[in-house]
Amino acid sequence: MSLRIVVCVKYVPDATGDRHFAEDLTTARDAVDGLLSELDEYAVEQALQIAEAADDAEVTVLTMGPEDARDALRKALSMGADKAVHVEDDALHGSDVMGTSLVLARAIERTGYDLVVCGMASTDGTMGVLPAILAERLGVPQVTLLSEVAVAGGNVLGRWDGDTASERVEAQLPAVVSVTDQSGEARYPSFKGIMAAKKKPVESLELSDLGIDAGEVGLAGARTAVEEAAERPARSAGTIVKDEGEGGKQLAAFLAESKFI
Amino acid sequence: MGAVLVYVDQVDGAVRKPTLELLTLARRIGEPVAVHLGPGAEVAALVLAEHGAARVLAAEAPEFAEYLVVPKVDALEAAAKAMNPVAVLVPSSGEGKEIAARLAVRLGSGIITDAVDLEAGVDGPVATQSVFAASFTTKSRVTKGTPVITVKPNSATPEQAPAAGAVEPLTVAFGDAARGARVVSRSPRESTGRPELTEAAIVVSGGRGVGGAENFSVIERLADSLGAAVGASRAAVDAGWYPHSNQVGQTGKTVSPQLYVACGVSGAIQHRAGMQTSKTIVAVNKDPEAPIFDLVDYGVVGDLFEAVPQLTEEVKTRKN
Ligand SMILES: Cc1cc2nc3c(=O)[nH]c(=O)nc-3n(C[C@H](O)[C@H](O)[C@H](O)COP(=O)(O)OP(=O)(O)OC[C@H]3O[C@@H](n4cnc5c(N)ncnc54)[C@H](O)[C@@H]3O)c2cc1C
């Protein structure tokens, strides 16, 4: 039986751009170019490696997002994923993690899966809880924040590096995993990969395909609300000196003045 | 006053500082009730009570250590059903956030992660967060269900507020999922004896400019002279010069110390995400155009191999 892997990816505003909020206090999507979250590239990479190591496997990339989010799917397809699923619906605007996870969980079930692979967090929302919520909603084990991952004998195995210990962890498939940016550099799409991606299937789904009511998602269904967003005041300009041989001592004098020594 | 459940982060009964910060924040919105899972509750209860825990719900089972996340969710869910709390607070570690998130699903609640402050509001607790690499500050609220909120380390100064803190057994029935993800083996990491990165008052970080693993001794010597923790940029970690557990930034730790010393770190947006809220920032970098200089209170444009050892010597002299 073929190993069915679904990778959840997010299309995010470029972190090096000037990110800000829209009037309804959702993330402004127009101001900054979007891209496949760099942290999800690690997820695509690990999924592809697991698929390559298996006798027979199929990698589906899944995203929920506006029309432009297709760019993120294209990138993952050009890296080597086999097919893509795009959930797009106007009612999804402003969804929080509960709404998003509901949509992704239904889409994963509809696609069929043995293993769900996620990145460690999105680079815009940065919550890092979606994989755990997917596992809760799907009713399958989670092994998350892995710096190493492999599938063998119907199990997923991995290494988690914590502050005080490293752990080897294991769960039976089907399962949800997330991988960190320590799991190994993601491959660049080859020219051949980019050409091939143009012919790979991208399925478009709406909420009705997933049996979800508009009221359960989007701003209407959100269980959290941002009430205020303020730009952090720029730090006041500091003193900058060129080291002419006394730089270390000058810095020490500043630290002494500020009572750090 | 309604109960506020506080998940206790501890190692064998030694309560970690972020939990005491949570108790302090919990007192602003209700009466703190600590939930302690694993051995050592009686010892932990002393310090929890000192910081305001009115009650300490305790459960002990091998599942908490042998399986990931879910047994702790089962326990918190049992505590929530028993106490009907006005909020649940969990420290923002990787595991803490996942426990909180799964609990929120079960309670039909919303979740807020990585709060840096918490206050009582008319419609329930209001959480402050730092977003977009700490370039924005937001105030948010959970609008449905019992608010579940995770709070970052260093978000409050722990206050003494003696309370009863009696230990009461919490009965937990593990669900089918509890034993789904197993810890096969655990290799503890050796302690460096330096302060915990996220809790330290001073952090000294090295970046690609340090140029090699052996050169990190330059950074460590300065850190030790100041009693500081050592941090590293992802470039330094990716190069294998320093452990990932010391990485500061978006995919490492968020630090918010009194003083942050950046040595040979350019100040990329993802690094800033992890240190931008430090009270005082100083840097040594040989490139006058490095973005880190936009953040500093004091900056030295120069070679870190000259300036940092000189600074270390001067700190030692002044301290004696
Ligand atoms: C999704 C994502 C997540 C990321 N997460 C993180 C993260 O958590 N933390 C993080 O740090 N980065 C993170 N990064 C990487 C980040 O973008 C930068 O690449 C990284 O921070 C650069 O590290 P650096 O400043 O040490 O290196 P560089 O940018 O190469 O800077 C080195 C600096 O050292 C200076 N220098 C060199 N030699 C000397 C000398 N002898 N004396 C003085 N100065 C010297 C140079 O002038 C330069 O400014 C992430 C990136 C992405 C895409």
TrEMBL record, chain A:
<dbReference type="InterPro" id="IPR014730">
    <property type="entry name" value="ETF_a/b_N"/>
</dbReference>
<keyword id="KW-0813">Transport</keyword>
<dbReference type="Pfam" id="PF01012">
    <property type="entry name" value="ETF"/>
</dbReference>
<keyword id="KW-0249">Electron transport</keyword>
<dbReference type="InterPro" id="IPR012255">
    <property type="entry name" value="ETF_b"/>
</dbReference>
<comment type="function">
    <text>The electron transfer flavoprotein serves as a specific electron acceptor for other dehydrogenases. It transfers the electrons to the main respiratory chain via ETF-ubiquinone oxidoreductase (ETF dehydrogenase).</text>
</comment>
<dbReference type="InterPro" id="IPR014729">
    <property type="entry name" value="Rossmann-like_a/b/a_fold"/>
</dbReference>
<comment type="subunit">
    <text>Heterodimer of an alpha and a beta subunit.</text>
</comment>
<dbReference type="InterPro" id="IPR033948">
    <property type="entry name" value="ETF_beta_N"/>
</dbReference>
<comment type="similarity">
    <text>Belongs to the ETF beta-subunit/FixA family.</text>
</comment>
<feature type="domain" description="Electron transfer flavoprotein alpha/beta-subunit N-terminal">
    <location>
        <begin position="24"/>
        <end position="214"/>
    </location>
</feature>
<protein>
    <recommendedName>
        <fullName>Electron transfer flavoprotein subunit beta</fullName>
    </recommendedName>
</protein>
From TrEMBL, chain B:
<comment type="subunit">
    <text>Heterodimer of an alpha and a beta subunit.</text>
</comment>
<feature type="domain" description="Electron transfer flavoprotein alpha/beta-subunit N-terminal">
    <location>
        <begin position="4"/>
        <end position="187"/>
    </location>
</feature>
<dbReference type="InterPro" id="IPR014731">
    <property type="entry name" value="ETF_asu_C"/>
</dbReference>
<comment type="function">
    <text>The electron transfer flavoprotein serves as a specific electron acceptor for other dehydrogenases. It transfers the electrons to the main respiratory chain via ETF-ubiquinone oxidoreductase (ETF dehydrogenase).</text>
</comment>
<dbReference type="InterPro" id="IPR014729">
    <property type="entry name" value="Rossmann-like_a/b/a_fold"/>
</dbReference>
<dbReference type="Pfam" id="PF01012">
    <property type="entry name" value="ETF"/>
</dbReference>
<dbReference type="InterPro" id="IPR029035">
    <property type="entry name" value="DHS-like_NAD/FAD-binding_dom"/>
</dbReference>
<keyword id="KW-0249">Electron transport</keyword>
<dbReference type="Pfam" id="PF00766">
    <property type="entry name" value="ETF_alpha"/>
</dbReference>
<keyword id="KW-0813">Transport</keyword>
<dbReference type="InterPro" id="IPR001308">
    <property type="entry name" value="ETF_a/FixB"/>
</dbReference>
<dbReference type="InterPro" id="IPR018206">
    <property type="entry name" value="ETF_asu_C_CS"/>
</dbReference>
<dbReference type="InterPro" id="IPR014730">
    <property type="entry name" value="ETF_a/b_N"/>
</dbReference>
<protein>
    <submittedName>
        <fullName>Electron transfer flavoprotein subunit alpha/FixB family protein</fullName>
    </submittedName>
</protein>
<comment type="similarity">
    <text>Belongs to the ETF alpha-subunit/FixB family.</text>
</comment>
<keyword id="KW-0285">Flavoprotein</keyword>
<keyword id="KW-0274">FAD</keyword>
<dbReference type="InterPro" id="IPR033947">
    <property type="entry name" value="ETF_alpha_N"/>
</dbReference>
